[in-house]
Amino acid sequence: MPDLDPAIARRMIDATAYIFDMDGTLVLGDAASGGHKALPGAADLLSTLRSRYTPFRVFTNGTAKPPSVYAASLRHAGLDVADHEMMTPSTSAAAWFVRKGIKRVRVLGLDGVQAPLIEAGIEVVGPSEMASNVEAVYTGWFREFTLPDLEMACRDVWDGAIVTTASNVPFFAALGGRAIGASFAINAMIRAMTGKQAKVLGKPSQNALHSGLALMNLPRSAARSTVIVGDDPALEMRMARVSGALGVAVTTGLNNAADFLACAPSQQADVILSGLEPIVKALS
Predict the structure, then answer these.
(1) Helix (H) or strand (E) holding 188
(2) The CATH number fitting domain 90-200, selected from 3.10.20.880, 2.20.25.90, 3.40.50.1000, 3.40.50.2300
(3) Domain extents for the chain?
(4) Of 107, 109, 115, 106, which is closest to residue 86 (Cα–Cα)?
(5) Which of 96, 104, 134, 267, CA to CA, is 20 to 30 A from 282?
(6) What is the pTM of this model?
(7) Interval 25-45: pLDDT, tens
(8) Cα separations (Å) of 191 from 158, 172, 188?
């Protein structure tokens, strides 16, 4: 295993916090079982961070399940992740809606998408529910999506609701290859009908990063001393690049080293690793 550049290793050691992607970084999802399989080094890395009292959050861009259910699945896979250490885009979306004073949201998604919003006190309107005065449409994981859902969402937008989304990426890493991101397809249909581009409230938005820091009781200024680890240049690496965080790319998910090296400057990683073990070594 090659040694890390000393400057990179020092930033990992001195980091105020870590934010990890889930699929393709710590685990791979198993579509057949609905569970997860831990990737090499993941359990050791989280254990090492806990022993150093370094806070972390696991931030998946998926909204198929509530954060607590994802956390339980990770624990079943052998990772020490408490419920409060797990985030989804709906976690950061709920914080954004509250901050903006948005109280009535049509959610295109089921319990995994809706739960954090309901917990934040937001009135959630169901996908095809008749409703007026909807302030925002929010899209997430929703394979049950139907034409009536599209019609209701478009009517809200034509009446002035803003369009927001958990994620607008077409694929995510899973065992056996890539899986399609449902919200990407839904967003495309809404955009085609209304001309409105969805505002991303999950990764790579700065809203998502700031929500993660706030949940660790850290100020926004802590972003520059945070390490962001992930497998997607358009998500984790872009979020790190914009914020000044250390962006650590891993090739255990959707992309290989050549893919990361070919990215635009706005999506470049500070270091590309074949797995998590070099981080464990640096911290040990």
Answers:
(1) helix 182-194
(2) 3.40.50.1000
(3) 6-88+204-283, 90-200
(4) 115
(5) 267
(6) 0.91
(7) 999 987 667 789 999 999 999
(8) 12, 22, 5
